[in-house]
Structure formats: C-alpha cells, structure tokens
C-alpha cells in the first residue's frame, strides 16, 4: 500500500498543482510541506505502521513528549535482548556501547536520515535540495551536525579554539562569578518563603550567560535567546506533527532574523568575541559564506547552552532524589567533576543520534547495505552492563563514569563537551553548597522534546 501523507492544512491541489494567493506564498508553503514530509511525515507514517505490528522502534522514537529517560530503561533492555542491531521498520537500532561507538567512529557512516546521493539525481535528494531553506536549521547543511569532511573539518577548525580544555579553564572563574550572582538573585526571591523555579532562574541562565559573553551577545537578551532556542531543540526531533513543525520553523526564522542582525552589528562594531573573529575571517578571505557563517554561529550558540541546561536540571533532580550521593560529594568535593559525568551517563541530555551508511558495510557481523539508517541510542549505551557495573545505579564515585557516550564519538564528538562539563560541575556544586537542604516541590515538568531530555520546570523551596 502506498504511503498517504496528508497535505499541509491551508493548501489545496488541482491536477497536482498547489494553489494559493500568489506564486511566492505557494512555493514557500510547498517547500515547507516537502521539508515536513521528508523529515517528519514519511518517517512518522512508516514508524507508526510498523509499530502497530509490534516494532519496538515506535515506542522509542515516538515516545510521549517529555517522557523521562528512566521510563525507557525497560525498552532499552528489550531492544538489547534482540541482539546488537535491532531491525525496525524505519531503521536499525543500536543499544550496545561497543556497537554504537563503532558506528559513530566509522567513515562508512554519515549524519542524516536519507541515503547520501552524491549525484544529486535521486528523488529524495532532488526534493531535499529544492525545498532547502536559507534559514538556519541545525540538521541542514552547512550545519556542523549535517556536514562531513572536508566541509565539517573546515567549519569545526574555526571554532574549536574557543572550546579547548585550556580555553574553557580560562572561563572557570567567570562562570563561578555568574553562578554566584544568579544564586544571590534566587536567595532574594526565596527570602519571603516563596518557591522558585530552578530551571528558569538558574539552570537556563547560567549557560546562556556564559555562551552569550563568549559570542558577544548582550546579556539583556539572554531570556529571549532561551525562548528562541526551543525551536532549535525541537528541530532535532523526528515525526513532528504539521502544526508543531510550523511552530518550530517559525521559531527558527525568528532566531535567524536576530542572528543576521547581530552579525551585521558585529561587522561594524567588532569585539574580542568568537563571532567577531568569524565575521572578520569572512570579510578578509571569504573563508565563510554568509550562510555558512550563520549556520556555524547559530549552532555554536544553540548548542552552547541547550544541552547544558538539561545537564544541570537533570543533575539537580538526581542529587535531590539521592541524598546519600550528595553526602559523598560534601565529604569529597573533588568528586564533583566525576559526578557531572555520572549525571551525563545516567540521565543524558540527548537520547539518540542517527547515522546512514554511505556504502555497503558490516556492523556487529551483520551486512549493512548502503543507505541503511542506524539510530544509535546513546542513553542505552550508557547503561550497557558490559561496560558499567550496576548500570542503573547513580554512583558519583563510579570510576569509569567518563566512558559514557552522551557527547557522541568520532568526528562529531560534541564540540562543547569541556564547557558543558565545567558548567555542570560548577553550577551543581555552588547550588548545593549555597542551598544544601533545597527541596523540589510540586510537579516536575519535562521539555516536550523527544531527542533532547531535560526539565522545563523544577520548583524548589530553598533554605
């Protein structure tokens, strides 16, 4: 039976032609519809159909928005019991640490959800090229998340110096200063005995303030940037409904509009920040096109805080719920860095990432034809009993906590891993030093995203 994809609301067709108020509006809506169909409509249809036949992949990829990583643990084990590579209706699924690392580091696999077509003559390739938007989109080239060498190497080299361990250590003192200022504000708000939301008042503001200073973004815009970042987070999901997809793209358009203006301002008023340096590189030698500049800048900005927000929020919840581990950290404060990695392992900010075979290959002894999609479930790899003893136990003293795959692996290893670790360590340590008896109260609300996992609200009573 052929796939049936419902046309986007607000459009109608006659003899295969989309009609609307004007050619520009028609083409814009048509392209948006194709982007939705390729990235969400078709995959969602395939996954739902196979899920009705018992395919476990549907429970994983289309799990309820905001569901907790812990809710999926039984599913991880069920998938693992089916072998090193579970063959779903839409893609293969890998849950074993060794297999996932092999896929992520192999040159036989590239980012993307559809088979790469170097000739550009395939139906999907032609549709993707025709519908591509000029707006910043994390999963569309020239984003670092959607490119491979040599382009990926070129882009990454331009921004790597800001995220080296040495560069991050230079930010440590300033990060502690920002954290203490935010904690002072929380203390003032809590002085009356009122509850405070740790996500909006602390988890979000700490990393957004740090990355804003690195990128030359005015601090007064940080809350607006957090709001716009939600579109970037949602764009990583697969199988979005049409209405949600349009809202996501509107958010990305707003972010892109702001980014264009900010880069133009920096071109006329350069500073010592990374974006000013990237603008100067473009102007001096045209090493980055205007679109490349926006793509690199947008991803660095969005990735510079979105996952760290989740790391700090997830860590607060874990430490609150495991007071004996908090007591260990109080007695051995040198373990805070390790605790940050244990949090990343047990409740990672990113559930999974996808790769597609660029050529015929073999993984875990199984032949993998060109074009095969493999979803590598990072959260499951982090609970692989072959690597981690008592994998479901939260243990801040775990000796190999750093072996988690929450930052991916290979050439797409998270550029901001060192920064995230540092911010997580400082953010959590200073919070619990200031408020050792904080109590989470009321309902804990999760983000509506599926791929990125974190809290949107954590109300607490401070003492």
UniProtKB/TrEMBL annotation:
<keyword id="KW-0503">Monooxygenase</keyword>
<dbReference type="InterPro" id="IPR002397">
    <property type="entry name" value="Cyt_P450_B"/>
</dbReference>
<keyword id="KW-0479">Metal-binding</keyword>
<keyword id="KW-0349">Heme</keyword>
<comment type="similarity">
    <text>Belongs to the cytochrome P450 family.</text>
</comment>
<dbReference type="InterPro" id="IPR036396">
    <property type="entry name" value="Cyt_P450_sf"/>
</dbReference>
<keyword id="KW-0408">Iron</keyword>
<dbReference type="Pfam" id="PF00067">
    <property type="entry name" value="p450"/>
</dbReference>
<protein>
    <submittedName>
        <fullName>Cytochrome P450</fullName>
    </submittedName>
</protein>
<dbReference type="InterPro" id="IPR001128">
    <property type="entry name" value="Cyt_P450"/>
</dbReference>
<keyword id="KW-0560">Oxidoreductase</keyword>
<dbReference type="InterPro" id="IPR017972">
    <property type="entry name" value="Cyt_P450_CS"/>
</dbReference>
């Amino acid at each position: 039976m052929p796939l049936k994809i419902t046309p986007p609301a607000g459009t109608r067709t006659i003899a295969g032609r989309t009609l609307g108020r004007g050619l520009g509006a028609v083409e814009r809506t048509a392209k948006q519809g194709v982007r939705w169909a390729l990235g969400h409509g078709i995959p969602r249809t395939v996954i739902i159909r196979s899920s009705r036949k018992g395919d476990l992949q549907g429970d994983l990829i289309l799990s309820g928005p905001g569901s907790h990583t812990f809710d999926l643990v039984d599913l991880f084990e069920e998938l693992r019991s089916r072998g090193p590579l579970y063959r779903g209706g839409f893609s293969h699924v890998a849950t074993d640490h060794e297999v996932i690392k092999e896929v992520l580091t192999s040159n036989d696999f590239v980012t993307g959800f559809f088979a790469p077509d170097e000739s550009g003559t395939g139906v999907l390739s032609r549709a993707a090229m025709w519908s591509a938007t000029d707006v910043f989109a994390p999963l569309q080239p020239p984003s670092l998340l959607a490119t491979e060498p040599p382009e990926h190497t070129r882009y990454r080299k331009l921004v790597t110096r800001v995220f080296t361990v040495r560069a991050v250590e230079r930010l440590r003192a300033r990060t502690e200063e920002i954290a203490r200022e935010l904690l002072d504000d929380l203390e003032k708000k809590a002085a009356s005995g009122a509850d405070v939301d740790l996500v909006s008042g602390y988890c979000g503001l700490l990393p957004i303030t740090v990355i804003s200073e690195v990128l030359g973004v005015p601090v007064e815009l940080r809350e607006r940037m957090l709001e716009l970042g939600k579109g970037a987070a949602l764009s990583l999901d697969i199988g979005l409904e049409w209405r949600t997809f349009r809202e996501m793209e509107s958010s990305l358009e707003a972010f892109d509009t702001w980014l264009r203006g900010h880069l133009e301002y920096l071109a006329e008023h350069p500073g010592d920040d990374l974006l000013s340096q990237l603008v100067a590189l473009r102007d001096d030698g045209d090493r980055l096109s205007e679109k490349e500049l926006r793509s690199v800048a947008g991803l660095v900005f969005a990735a510079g805080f979105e996952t760290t927000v989740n790391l700090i929020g997830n860590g607060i919840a874990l430490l609150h719920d495991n007071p004996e581990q908090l007591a260990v950290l109080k007695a051995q404060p040198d373990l805070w860095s390790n605790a940050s990695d244990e949090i990343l392992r047990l409740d990672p900010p990113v559930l999974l990432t996808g790769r597609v075979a660029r050529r015929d290959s073999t993984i875990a002894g199984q032949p993998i034809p060109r074009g095969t999609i493999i979803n590598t479930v990072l959260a499951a790899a982090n609970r692989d009993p072959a690597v981690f003893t008592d994998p479901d136990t939260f243990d801040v003293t775990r000796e190999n906590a750093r072996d988690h795959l929450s930052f991916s692996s290979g050439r797409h290893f998270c550029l901001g891993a060192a920064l995230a670790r540092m911010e997580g360590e400082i953010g959590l340590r200073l919070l619990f030093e200031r408020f050792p008896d904080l109590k989470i109260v009321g309902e804990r609300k999760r983000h509506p995203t599926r791929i990125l996992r974190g809290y949107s609200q954590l109300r607490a009573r401070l003492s």
